[in-house]
Write a structure and sequence with these properties.
Structural class: mainly alpha
Largest sheet: none
Order of helices and strands: HHHH
Distance between the termini: 51 Å
Helix content: over 70%
Radius of gyration: 20 Å
């Protein structure tokens, strides 16, 4: 009939198990919001490195557009990962979500930046 795994009722969980589940889910949210906050905090530094052409306002607007794309796609990711969580479980969906966020941060860190001067390319990695 129903192929979805149902979690145990909250009444059957011990206090320790309930606290563990809450902390595990909160850790995933912490990583997500930390990732967004770091990108927003360093936007002034990312803008001239990744969008070298144009004036500073255009660079910041391009950087803000990338930030906005992430917010636009959040509901789509929630829908996709929600359906994955329904089929495979919350743990696998949360692990995939956090791994994809870490991969995005790694790509930003390893992408070669434009050189600040003619002294040669400056690489982050």
């Amino acid at each position: 009939m129903d192929s979805f795994a149902t979690p145990p009722p909250a009444a059957t969980l011990s206090h320790r198990q309930r606290l563990r589940y809450i902390l595990s889910g909160s850790a995933g949210n912490l990583v997500e919001y930390f990732d967004w906050a770091i990108y927003a905090a360093f936007a002034l530094y990312f803008a001239p490195r990744f969008f070298p052409e144009g004036d500073q306002t255009a660079q910041l607007l391009n950087n803000a557009a990338i930030f906005a794309v992430g917010f636009v796609f959040r509901p789509l990711g929630g829908w996709l990962l929600g359906s994955l969580a329904d089929r495979k479980g919350r743990k696998s969906a949360l692990l995939l979500s956090v791994s994809l966020m870490c991969l995005g941060s790694l790509i930003i860190a390893c992408t070669p930046a434009t050189p600040p001067s003619a002294t040669g390319p400056r690489r982050c990695c």
